[in-house]
Amino acid sequence: MISILSGGTGTPKLIQGIKNIHSPEDLNIIVNTVENDYFSGVYVAADIDTVLYTLSDMINDETWYGINGDTFITNEKLAKLDCTELLRIGDLDRATKIQKTILMEKHTLTEAVDIQRKKMGIKSKILPMSDEHSKIVVKTDIGELEFHDFLIKHQTKPEVISVDYTKVNVGPKIVETIENSEMVIIGPSNPITSILPITTLKGVEKALKNSYVVGISPIIGDAPVSGPAGKFMTAMGHEVSSYGVASIYKNFLDKFIIDEVDKNLKDDIEEIVSEVIVANTNMKNIEDKENLAKVVLGK
Hints:
The protein has helices at residues 10-21, 46-55, 73-80, 91-103, 109-119, 147-153, 174-179, 191-199, 204-209, 229-235, 242-249, 266-269, 286-297; strands spanning 2-6, 27-31, 37-39, 42-44, 125-128, 136-140, 143-146, 160-165, 183-186, 213-216, 219-220, 223-224, 255-259, 275-279. It is α/β, with parallel strands linked by helices. The chain has a single domain (2-134, 168-297), classed as CofD-like domains (Rossmann fold, 3-Layer(aba) Sandwich), CATH 3.40.50.10680. The strands form 4 sheets. It has a 7-stranded parallel sheet, sandwiched between helices. A 3-stranded antiparallel sheet has the order 7-6-8. A two-stranded antiparallel ribbon has the order 3-4. α1 links the parallel β1 and β2 (27-31). It is globular, with a radius of gyration of 18 Å.
């Protein structure tokens, strides 16, 4: 059994490669939930939905958000009614979110997601990191911003001073799943807002220390492949580099994969992580994703 810690963009790209070369039934995806919130009356769990769509071959792999070929009739009609949405939600994607919102009237988030993944024919397990709501706030030079305001309304432009999120209880079976895994993969997602919220949950770091953990750097050179990870790492006192990412995970990493651009950092990283592999981590096409998946799985 393999477990994967995931955010919403970099790691799903890797998952797409892994599921093509490894049995989906053997995969458990533990997904960040700190960015979840209600928008336009529906519960939005963007990272979870991206994983759902990736595993069901529906993902829009140009944006890594939403469903491929979706329409935006409802979104456009709302705008005409002077009800412009902060999040541009597609019609098919909205149906998934409406279903999840209705399910959560009687079910936990974990139960709702399990119902959805079965309906979508997904054989892998998808586990939200927590069933509790967590508010994430980005303190910037223009004041405190809700995460999605910072990300979408302000296009990540403000300078980041700090990032904080409400601490929540670990979801059911998360620790047990990690403990029973032959390998735990820390995907190339934002270390600060996607991975650390999972690894700092009660019992998770201890479970990781007792597991075989492989990490993939989301940083190439001195910048993230996508998103505001660099700004967040700087604000929280971490060097924006593969070495900086390895430093965050060093307490439980057994193997770390860095991009070919960063091969000069290999010796330095090997001082804090026992095994460092240099490979192409910039996943531009399905061949790149499958090749990186083989490196991660040691195939």
